[in-house]
From TrEMBL:
Keyword terms: Signal
InterPro entries: PAR1
Span of the signal peptide: 1-22
Name of the protein in its database record: PAR1 protein
Organism: Hibiscus trionum
Amino acid sequence: MPSFKSPFFLLLSSLFLRASLAEFVCEDLPHDVCAFSISSSGKRCLLETTMEKDKVEYQCRTSEVVVERMADHIESDECVRACGVDRNAVGISSDSLLEPQFTNKLCAPACSHNCPNILDLFFNLAAGEGVFLPDLCEAQRINPRRSMVEFMSSSGVAPGPVPSGAELFAGDALASAPAPNSLD
C-alpha cells in the first residue's frame, strides 16, 4: 500500500531547499544591519540617505565592491562594538584611520582576531592610501602619535588644523622617521 507521507515529505523538503537558496540582497536589509554586511553575490552593502518629505530616509544599497571568499554575511553586534564602527555611518572613509581611538579598537585583538569582514574592509581602505594596516597597527601599539603622522605622510592626506605643540612633534617625528629604501 503506497504511503502518502513520502510525497508530503518531498514537498516540504523542496520548500525548505528553495528557502535556503534564497538570495541575500542588500536592498532587502533594514538600515540598522546594512552597513558591514555582504550580499549573496559577495558585494558589500552600503547605507545611503535620501530626502522624503523633508525627512532623511535610510536605504540599504548594493555597492560594486566585491569581497573575496565571503558572502551572505551580516556583521555581528559584537564585532561592531569591538571594532568601534558605526552601523549608521553613511559611507566609509579611510579618515577614521587617523583617529587614534578608532585605530586602537580596530587593531585590538577583540577586533583583529575575530572580525575578518571589518578588518578586510579597513585593510583595503588603508591599502588604497598606500598604508599596510598591520604596519599601522604595530606603529599604533608602539607610538600612537608617530603612527598617525606616518599614515598622513604616506597617504597624502592633508592634515587639518594642528595645535602648535603638535606641529613641533609632527616635524620631529617626520625628521626621525627612517627614509624609504630605494631600489636603484
